[in-house]
Amino acid sequence: MLSINDLHARVEDTTILKGLDLEIKPGEVHAIMGPNGAGKSTLGYVLSGRDGYEVESGSVEMNGKDLLDMEVEERAQAGIFLAFQYPVEIPGVSNMEFMKESVNAIREARGENALSSAEFLKKAKDACKQVELPLDFLKRGVNEGFSGGEKKRNEIMQLIMLEPKLAILDESDSGLDVDALQVVAKGVNSQRDGERSFIVVTHYQRLLDYIQPDYVHIISNGKIVKSGGPELAKEVEASGYAWLAEAEGVDA
Amino acid sequence: MSQWLNHVLERASTVDDWLSPVRAQALDTLKQQQWPTRRTEAWRYTSLHPVADLELKAASVNATAEAPLIEGLNSLDLVFVDGQLNTDISQLKLPEGVTISELSAPSQTAEALFAQVKPSRHLFGLVNDVLAQQGVVIDIAAGAKVEQPIRIVNFASAGIESHQRTLVRVGENAQATIIEHGSGSGNSLNTAFAEYDIAEKARLEHYRFALHEGEAIHIGGSHFKLHDHAKLNSTLIGYGSQLTRLDVDIEHAGEHAFAKFNNVYLLAPRQHFDLHSTIEHASPNGTTEENARGIIGDRAKAVFNGRIHIHRHAQKTLAELNNRNLLLTRGAQINTKPELEIYADDVQCAHGATVAEIDEDALYYMLTRGIDKQQALVMLNFGFVQEMVSQMPNKALADWLQPILKTRFESMMEQQ
Ligand SMILES: Nc1ncnc2c1ncn2[C@@H]1O[C@H](COP(=O)(O)OP(=O)(O)O)[C@@H](O)[C@H]1O
Ligand SMILES: [Mg+2]
Asked: Residues of B numbered 165-194 whose beta carbons fall under 8 angstroms of chain A's beta carbons: which are they?
């Protein structure tokens, strides 16, 4: 469903992604691990089409279409969802209003009817329940004054509501205690249906105890340096990322 | 000197009515005024160039107009067309406790308020003092709880110069809602000044809609005097035009008075809007909450000067003043100056101003949720205005204003 080929991308004058390849089939969960600064978030931003992240070369196709040719909102409407590492606060726009616009924009793009207020509310309540977010969070400004953990759960709530084809979770585990981590993982797992694909970005192996990946990739200095099965995550846990420097030395 | 002001002085000498003694004093003061330049503090960022040599006609007596309908408001409307009262007051069914008379008819209320609440430092206030022959005097009897909003509608037609005056006394323990609703888009000059005296424990809900646009020049003010335990909740909405300038004064004359003053300006490209507000805390235990929020389009210019002055005896004052602005383009301009002057030592005060551009991170976040750019911009940037509208206590007014402001904002975004 997603095919990334030799992707090079830069921010301002710095090339950050330096030849990244990744092939994702429907229903697969790919974990991407790597040290800070490796380019994990950059990958999410490039896939979602953020301004200022310029693709130098390479290609990204989603279901045969050139993803890089689409606007940010078109990508979302085509089924890309990015759960942010640092979700943005939007005071003055309620979570409810935000989600309603968003759900209906995506439904419209898929040729579906807009949800009625009652239908929307029911769906929103169910989604909040799944991630244990109190309902009054719907009335608050988007992420406004939410704790770190609440923001992450709010992202997963959105994932549940928006039913994407590919969800990219950027460190949805960072800053969470074990209980919150389990809530997030449970929410994500509930969305695994054999069709929906996931890129699960994480710095630590811990999350992958709860969200079982099909593949694990290690990213370093803007490209994938090692791929394997879930066991690769365990290796990382045991040995950390120090070996990467060595491996890169060998590479060069 | 201005040709226009010379004509004002000439015309003033022909005005002869029961207010002439007070007008004469105003005229004396006016004669001593210099025509403002960029070096005049109160006009530093607003050029009076469009007025200096203006020559317009006086109003025709026959002009009529219907007040714009606001659904569900059920207001008692006093309609002025080019400064001329178009409503037959004698035919109105007044709510209990309400007395309304014309400015031309001598009354104690008018005598007590005319040029008494409004400070004499406002140049155009003085012009209005000497020229405004038409206006309304509204008296809310002590203890009256008036549910029906009273709306003063001011139309300004192209080619006309007009001056209108409003005087309102809210008696002890009384409650009322007054709306000043002004509009006009053709080349015109309208001054409209209103003075409010809010007695002990009285409450006034006040709105001023300065919906002048295009070539209209609108200069006016709303001036309030609050006595012990009086409450004011005021909302001002401005569009900006060739030149819109408003001065608002709120005087805490009594103790334990409360004033909430919200205002919103939404400036289409190339429009000008200037709001000067002064809050005088002359007595202890007063509270002021002032929030000004603006969105400024391309090559439009907003001026906000918010002054809070806490006198030496005004201990235990709580005062907050906040001004937030969003510039839609690099060509949009805001000159904002919140000023606190504190001479009492036991007070809590805060003030601040921010100027923002479009929040690209928030925009991106919304786009990643499939919301299209135009809609996202509306949601993002309209929110902080919407907050002000939703704080308006009158639901019918809020419901009316909300879509109007939203449509206006959408068209501002399209014009960028
Ligand atoms: N806006 C930016 N301008 C310049 N450099 C950036 C910017 N954003 C990220 N970088 C750099 O790109 C590299 C990768 O960052 P990022 O993708 O956030 O890494 P990760 O998510 O793996 O920790 C880092 O070296 C970071 O400093
Ligand atoms: Mg990151």
From this structure: none
* Gap from A238 CA to chain B (nearest CA, Å): 36
Distance CA B144, CA B177 (A): 12
pLDDT tens sequence across B264-286: 999 999 999 999 999 999 999 99
pLDDT at A57 over 60: yes
pLDDT value of position B412? 86
Q: What is the pTM of this model?
A: 0.79
Q: Which residues sit with their C-beta closer than 6 Å to ligand 1?
A: A 11-12, 14, 16, 34, 36-42
Kindly state the tokens that stand for B391. Answer: 């704080």
- Matching residue, tokens 């135009």: B374
Q: Are B76 and B149 in contact (CB under 8 A)?
A: yes
Distance CA B172, CA B195 (A): 17
- Quote the DSSP letter at residue B20: H
CA distance A163 to A158: 9
What is the complex's ipTM, to 2 decimals?
0.96
pLDDT single digits (tens) B59-77: 777 778 888 899 999 999 9
Residue B373's domain spans which residues? Answer: 3-414
pLDDT in tens, A148-192: 999 999 999 999 999 999 999 999 998 899 999 999 999 999 999
Question: Cβ A72–B362 below 8 Å, yes or no?
Answer: no
Do the Cβ atoms of A73 and B362 come within 8 Å? no
The CA-based dihedral angle spanning residues A149, A164, A47, A91, taken in that order and rounded to the nearest 10 degrees: -40
Max Cα-Cα span within chain B: 67
Token couple for B351 = 């003030």
Task: Report how many domains make up chain B.
Answer: 1
- Smallest CA–CA distance, residue B166 to chain A, in Å, is 35
State the pLDDT at residue B358: 85
State both tokens at A244: 């990467």
Q: Which residues in chain B have Cβ-Cβ distances shorter than 8 Å to A81?
A: 368
| Pairwise CA distance, residues A120 & A114, whole Å | 9
What is the CA A62 to chain-centroid distance, rounded?
Answer: 15
Fold of A2-86+162-248: Rossmann fold (3.40.50)
Q: What is the pLDDT of residues A202-228, one digit of tens each?
A: 988 899 999 999 999 999 999 999 999
pLDDT value of position A204: 86
CA B38 – CA B46 distance, rounded (Å): 8
Element (H, E) at B100: strand B98-102
* Partner-chain contact B370 A97, CB within 8 Å: no
Instruction: Assess B375–A contact: CB distance below 8 Å, yes or no.
Output: yes
Residues of A with CB under 8 A from a CB of B: 48-51, 71-73, 75-77, 80-82, 84, 87-93, 97-98, 101-102, 105-106, 109, 141-142, 158, 162
Q: Please enumerate in sequence order all residues whose Cβ is within 8 A of that of A120, keeping only pairs 6 or more positions apart, or say none.
A: A99, A100, A103, A104
Mutation site for A-interface testing, chosen from B291, B295, B369 by largest number of A Cβ within 10 Å: B369
Structure tokens given for B190: 């309208």
Q: Do B362 and A90 touch (CB under 8 A)?
A: yes
**Burial tier of A86 (Cβ tally within 10 Å: 0-12, 13-18, 19+):** middle
Tell me, what DSSP letter sits at residue A112?
A: P
| CA angle (B255 as vertex; B253, B261 as ends), nearest 5 | 70
Give CA separation, B73 vs B215, B227, B263, B276, in Å. Answer: 29, 28, 20, 29
For residue B159, pLDDT beyond 60: yes
Nearest CA to ligand 1 atom 17: A39
User: CB-based contacts of A118: which residues, under 8 Å, 6+ apart?
Assistant: none
